């Protein structure tokens, strides 16, 4: 349920089709909208498609359902399946179950912000230390389920997990034996109907089903809430990094991310030298406060994945705000904006991409313009900059409207930067 365009669903289908007598793929998107995904599946003769909408019969007359992350909580089709006694799973959770049964060690990382950076820090440091490590979960274009044949006993699998994927962990009552919970901020409340507790409880599946001897690492800011949920193991808050460790990552939030990764790596048995070397050599993940260019003495940063006010505030705190030109704006998530607005007023200049979120803040700001393309914002941002300034792309809002998704927004920004050079 939910083929999508990002590659994960297609990868799941490519893995499952040879194992099934008959496989039904259903998606609310039309055949035309899904053309790039469907092209990869032409080689299979046992796949049947229901596109442009769902049919209840597909959900009640089947042996098993694998639903995509992000399927609405109140989906009537999933409700009908469960009423009919059809098991409903999610592919990432199934992978976690089978990988552990195969003897792999799982490290799960969740949190509103920082989970990508922490997961990549752990994975890349493991690889640099010569460990047999894999990276899965909420990774662009990657089917984690399709990784199963390559998983062997003794391997380490690092999984970046969002709240939607962790719903599936709750259904299967599995949690990674090493879990990292970075932080909790307001996000995705439109999906959860404004219920912050429901959002947290989905995230909490990363530790709720842990067993004695498992490890739970948490950021200091989320410790109290995690403790209220009565985790099966004692949460561990990591100590600061040694003062002589020099990270390429910028921002105080990234220092905390590095401490979380370091503690996980210690638990996995790496030496302090291996951890230090891995963390110091790590470069930012794409779209996470990533330096992408320096043109005419002006430095450009791509923080595309900052889709909430808190994330953009963290990015702004990493620079001299009076010498920062911010490109932001997009689709509203219904989050509190007052603190963000006050910070934007201190920026050298703010350029906004149109969207429902932009509509909420544009009248609060002076000397700003609204744009329909990233190219236009970059041209004007560079014209307003002087050597030593920072041009920061940190949207604070979702990508819907002007872009297909956040990956499309990222790619358009990267392409526009290349045109400036």
Automatic annotation (TrEMBL):
Q: Is ATP-binding tagged as a keyword?
A: yes
Record keyword Lyase present: no
Q: In which pathway does this enzyme or protein participate?
A: Cell wall biogenesis; peptidoglycan biosynthesis
The Mur ligase central domain is annotated at 109-219
- GO biological process, alphabetically ordered: cell division; regulation of cell shape
Cellular component GO terms, alphabetical: cytoplasm
Q: Where in the cell is it found?
A: Cytoplasm
Query: Transmembrane residues, as ranges?
Result: none
Q: What is this protein called?
A: UDP-N-acetylmuramoyl-L-alanyl-D-glutamate synthetase
List, in alphabetical order, the Gene Ontology terms for molecular function in this entry.
ATP binding; UDP-N-acetylmuramoylalanine-D-glutamate ligase activity
Keywords from UniProt, A to Z, are: ATP-binding, Cytoplasm, Ligase, Nucleotide-binding
Q: Which PANTHER family does this UniProt record tie to the protein?
A: UDP-N-ACETYLMURAMOYLALANINE--D-GLUTAMATE LIGASE
Enumerate the InterPro entries for this protein.
Mur-like_cat_sf (IPR036565), Mur_ligase_C (IPR004101), Mur_ligase_C_dom_sf (IPR036615), Mur_ligase_cen (IPR013221), MurD (IPR005762)
Any idea where the Mur ligase C-terminal domain is?
A: 287-396
Report the main location listed first in the record.
Answer: cytoplasm
């Amino acid at each position: 349920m939910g083929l999508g365009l990002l590659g994960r669903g297609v990868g799941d289908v490519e893995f499952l089709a040879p194992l099934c007598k008959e496989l039904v793929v259903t998606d609310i998107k039309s055949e035309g909208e899904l053309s790039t995904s469907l092209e990869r599946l032409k080689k299979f003769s046992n796949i049947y498609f229901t596109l442009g909408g769902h049919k209840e019969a597909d959900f009640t007359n089947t042996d098993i359902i694998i639903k995509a992350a992000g399927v609405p909580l109140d989906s009537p089709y999933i409700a009908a399946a469960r009423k009919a006694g059809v098991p409903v799973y999610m592919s990432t959770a199934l992978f976690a179950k089978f990988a552990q049964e195969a003897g792999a060690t799982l490290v799960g990382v969740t949190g509103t912000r920082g989970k990508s950076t922490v997961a990549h820090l752990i994975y890349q440091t493991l690889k640099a230390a010569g460990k047999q490590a894999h990276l899965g979960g909420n990774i662009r274009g990657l089917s984690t389920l399709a990784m199963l044949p390559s998983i062997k006993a003794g391997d380490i699998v690092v999984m970046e997990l969002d709240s939607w994927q962790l719903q599936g962990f709750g259904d299967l009552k599995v949690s990674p034996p090493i879990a990292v919970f970075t932080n909790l901020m307001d996000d995705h409340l439109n999906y959860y109907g404004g219920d912050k507790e429901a959002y947290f409880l989905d995230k909490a599946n990363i530790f709720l089903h842990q067993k004695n001897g498992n490890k739970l690492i948490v950021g200091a800011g989320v410790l109290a809430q995690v403790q209220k949920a009565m985790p099966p193991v004692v949460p561990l808050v990591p100590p600061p990094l040694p003062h002589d460790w020099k990270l390429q990552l910028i921002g105080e939030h990234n220092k905390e991310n590095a401490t979380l990764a370091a503690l996980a790596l210690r638990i996995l048995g790496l030496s302090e030298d291996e951890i230090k070397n891995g963390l110091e050599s790590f470069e930012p993940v794409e779209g996470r406060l990533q330096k992408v260019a320096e043109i005419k003495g002006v430095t450009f940063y791509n923080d595309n994945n900052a889709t909430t006010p808190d994330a953009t505030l963290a990015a702004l705190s990493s620079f001299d705000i009076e010498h920062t030109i911010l490109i932001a704006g997009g689709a509203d998530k219904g989050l509190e904006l007052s603190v963000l607005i006050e910070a934007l007023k201190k920026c050298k200049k703010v350029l906004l991409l149109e969207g429902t979120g932009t509509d909420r803040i544009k009248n609060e700001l002076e000397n700003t313009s609204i744009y329909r393309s990233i190219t236009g914002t970059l041209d004007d941002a560079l014209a307003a900059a002087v050597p030593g300034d920072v041009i920061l792309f940190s949207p604070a809002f979702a990508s819907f409207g002007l872009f297909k998704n956040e990956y499309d927004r990222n790619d358009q920004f990267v392409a526009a930067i290349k045109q400036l050079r």
